Each structure stands twice: as structure tokens, then as C-alpha cells.
Amino acid sequence: MNVWIAIALTAVGCYLAKLLGLLVPAGALERPLVQRLAALLPVALLAALTAQQTFGDGQHLTLDARAAGLAAAALALVLRAPFLVVVGAAVAVTAGVRALG
Amino acid sequence: MAEKTAHLRTTAEPASGSTLAAGTKPDAAVVRDALGVGVAVGLSGFAFGVTSAGSGLSLLQTCALSLLVFTGASQFALVGALAAGGNPYTAAAGAFFLGVRNAFYGLRLSQLLALPRALRPLAAQWVIDETTAVTLPQPTRRAARIGFTVTGLTLYVLWNLTTLLGALGAEALGDTDAWGLDAASPAVFLALLAPMLKSTTERVTAGLAVLLALGLLPVLPAGVPVLLSALAAPVVLFLMGRAKGGDAGAGTTGTKDAGPARTEEDR
């Protein structure tokens, strides 16, 4: 039940955010600071999520095969690989390190 | 291949209304760009389906997320937070904050697409990173509309189809961690993040957010550290404003900071 509550809240919240953007007059975006904050918020959140899902294990910090996978993804990104290759590299390297270890 | 990357890389670029006037582009070229992004990203719904099912969500819950939320980072964040033991409210709050950026995409897209009011509630579900990345650089309104529609449709259909397949396949795979699929979601986040790290401000924000997220992880309930790491954005903006010296700069940055932060909480 808890999961359904989370799904419902997320679905409604995310949809309203999308709709709001289309409905609000463009003038609301004029202020440069609003733009800057809007651009920076996802940077902070995505960085936090990347770190936590790589080095987090419940309430503990840990260094495991996922770190190697993320390094592979970073390398793929530097080489300008397409999205699927980036994700595929992370998955393959993580699986490989686990198979070896 | 380079083309797709190029488009994804434009995500964080400021919208330039002036490009609208300049030049035209054959419809087929727009469709090709849109399909490239739509297919590549749409197929990664498989990773979401597997991750979600591996996190303990049912098939119905997994598919509901892709159908109703349809913004990948938020979906991954939600199942990640739930799997880590977060309560439904902090989990949903994290996913929602990540989805707030779509509101700002919508602000830019509504000018470019100039959709009739009645169509907007329908088009809204497709306002995401990828459709924005394809639509913004288009030279004409026609090209922008084609780009948005083709990317949105391809991505929506494929993302939901591959989510279903991934969720079904998760059982067949057995231990999804052994297949390294728990690395898919951080890799997705990193791929979305990388093109945004253009200047020092972005990099410092990312670094501070990582420190906050990892530093607070052991001491706060699941989901809360990510929410607090969002504070890195206003903090860095404030500090950069001060660093620029200007008495005016520091003052206005400080007072204006409270504005946008508050409006986002209000929603």
C-alpha cells in the first residue's frame, strides 16, 4: 500500500510540474536567478543520486563492483558514447567484476 | 551516434528564441534526430523495469510508474528510495523535486510549440529531458512540433514496452545484482548529469551535493539526504553571487534565493 501511495504522489506531482510549465506565461522565466536555480537543482539532485546509488547500501557507505561500473560509464561518456552504450558499459563491467570477485 | 550525444548535450543549454527565425530543416532530418533519441533512450526502459522489479515492486506498480510518471530519473529515484527503506513521502518528494525541472522545460517548450490550450494537458506528459533536447534546437515551429511529437511518441511507446519486458524478465534473470543491473540506475543519472557539468558553478554544485548525500546517508533516514543535497544549488548560487564581489550581486542573490525555493515547495 505504501508503494501505491508513493506512486500516486509521484505521478500527480510530476504531471502537475510538467503541465504547469506549459500553462504558465513565459514571463515567469524572465528572472535570471530562477533560470539559474532551475538549471542547478537537477545537477545537485542527479549528482547526489549517482553517488548514493553507487556507494550506498541501505544506511551504510560501501565500495563495491558498482563503483567500477560507474567508472566505465564515465569513460563511455568521455568518449561520447550514446546513452545505451553508457548504461550497458556500467552493467557489463559491474557484472564482470562480480563474476571475477 | 555523435548526433544523439550532441542532442542530449543540448539539454541544459539556454533556449534561444532567435534560432526560430533562422533557416529551415527538412522534415525527414527532424524525424531522424527524434527517432535516434527516442529509440536509444526508450530501450533503456528495460533497465528500469528490471531495477523496479528487483527493488520489490510488482509488475503492475512498475508499469504504472512508466505510464503515469514517465520521467526516468524520477522513476529510478523513487524505486531506489523505496528499496533503501525510505517512507513513501520522502521517496515521492525526492522523485518530485527531480521532476520539477520538467516545469522549466515546459516554459521554454510552450513558446516554441505554441500549442492550443486544449492540447496542453495531453502534451504535458511528454515534457521531459529528451523531448526538450530534441525540440529546442529546431529552427522552425514546424520542425519543433515534429521533433517533439516523434520523440515523445517513440519514447513513450518504447519506454513502456521495455519497462514491461524488463519487469517480466527480472524474474527470469533471477538475481538481478549478479547481472550488474543495480549499476544501471546510477549510470542513467550520470549520463543525464554529464552534459550539465559545463561550468565551475555546476561542478561545485555537483561536488557539494555528493558530499551532502554521502555524508548524511549514514545519519538520516533514507530519502532525506538526497532532498537536503538539493540545497547545494541555492547555496552555491549564493556563494558565487558573493564571490563576484558586487554589493548589489550578493544582496539580490541572497534575497531572491528565497523566492524560487519557496514557490517550488508550495507546489
UniProtKB/TrEMBL annotation, chain A:
Keywords: Membrane, Transmembrane, Transmembrane helix. The chain crosses the membrane at residues 6-25, 37-55, 67-97. It holds the Pfam family AzlD. InterPro entries: Brnchd-chn_aa_trnsp_AzlD. The keyword Transmembrane helix applies. This is AzlD domain-containing protein. The lineage of its organism: Bacteria, Bacillati, Actinomycetota, Actinomycetes, Kitasatosporales.
UniProtKB/TrEMBL annotation, chain B:
It comes from the Bacteria. It is a multi-pass membrane protein. The chain crosses the membrane at residues 34-51, 146-167, 179-197, 209-239. It is found in: Cell membrane. Residues 1-22, 246-267 are annotated as: Disordered. InterPro entries: Brnchd-chn_aa_trnsp_permease (IPR011606). The keyword Coiled coil does not apply. Keywords: Cell membrane, Membrane, Transmembrane, Transmembrane helix, Transport. The keyword Aminoacyl-tRNA synthetase does not apply. Belongs to the AzlC family. This is AzlC family ABC transporter permease.
